[in-house]
Structure formats: structure tokens, C-alpha cells
């Protein structure tokens, strides 16, 4: 079993168009490192030097990882990680 990572449309160029990919690791940081090894360039779109990028939301089984431990959040086989770009703006 592995960890499913759901990829937003904007990042699918890094995954060959795949909507979801699988990875492994003990923490979210480990998982992103594993994804980077198979899908080069994806990690830098999700994290920067200070941690998770400000306008990227990451959920572990529908829970925002910012409230679970950020990049140190433990992940396990069978979990689902969803990456979503934040959406802002609109007209008044």
C-alpha cells in the first residue's frame, strides 16, 4: 500500500498529466522528497525555504496540515494527501 497524492491541474505537468500519484515516507516532508525523486520540480512548487508555500494548501485525509504539524506531519500507507492552490480574488 502507498500514500495517494492528489495533484491539482496546475501541477500535472510535473506528473505527466496524472491526477494522482503515489508516494512513500514517514512525514509529509519525506513524502514530498519521494515525489520529487520521481517527478522533478514538483516539490519547489509546494514548499519554499520557510515551509509550505503561502498560497498552496495541503490536506491529509481532509485535514489542513498547517494545523497538524506542517511538513513534520506524520503520514501512513493508505493516507490521502491533497494539494490545492489557494484561490483568491474576484470582483466587488
UniProtKB/TrEMBL annotation:
Q: Which SUPFAM superfamilies does this chain map to?
A: MoaD/ThiS
User: Short name of one Pfam family for this protein?
Assistant: ThiS
The cross-references to CDD domains, in alphabetical order and at most eight, read: Ubl_CysO_like (cd17074)
Q: Which InterPro entries does the UniProt entry name for this protein?
A: Beta-grasp_dom_sf, MoaD_arc-typ, Mopterin_synth/thiamin_S_b, Sulfur_Carrier/Prot_Modifier, ThiS/MoaD-like
Give the protein's recorded name. Answer: MoaD family protein
Q: Which organism is this entry from?
A: Sphaerisporangium krabiense
Amino acid at each position: 500500500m502507498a500514500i495517494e497524492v492528489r495533484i491539482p491541474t496546475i501541477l500535472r505537468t510535473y506528473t505527466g498529466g496524472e491526477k494522482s500519484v503515489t508516494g512513500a515516507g514517514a512525514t509529509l516532508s519525506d513524502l514530498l522528497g519521494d515525489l520529487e525523486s520521481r517527478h522533478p520540480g514538483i516539490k519547489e512548487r509546494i514548499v519554499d525555504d520557510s515551509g509550505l508555500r503561502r498560497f498552496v494548501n495541503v490536506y491529509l485525509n481532509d485535514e489542513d496540515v498547517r494545523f497538524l504539524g506542517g511538513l513534520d506531519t506524520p503520514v501512513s500507507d493508505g493516507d490521502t494527501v491533497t494539494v490545492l492552490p489557494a484561490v483568491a480574488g474576484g470582483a466587488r
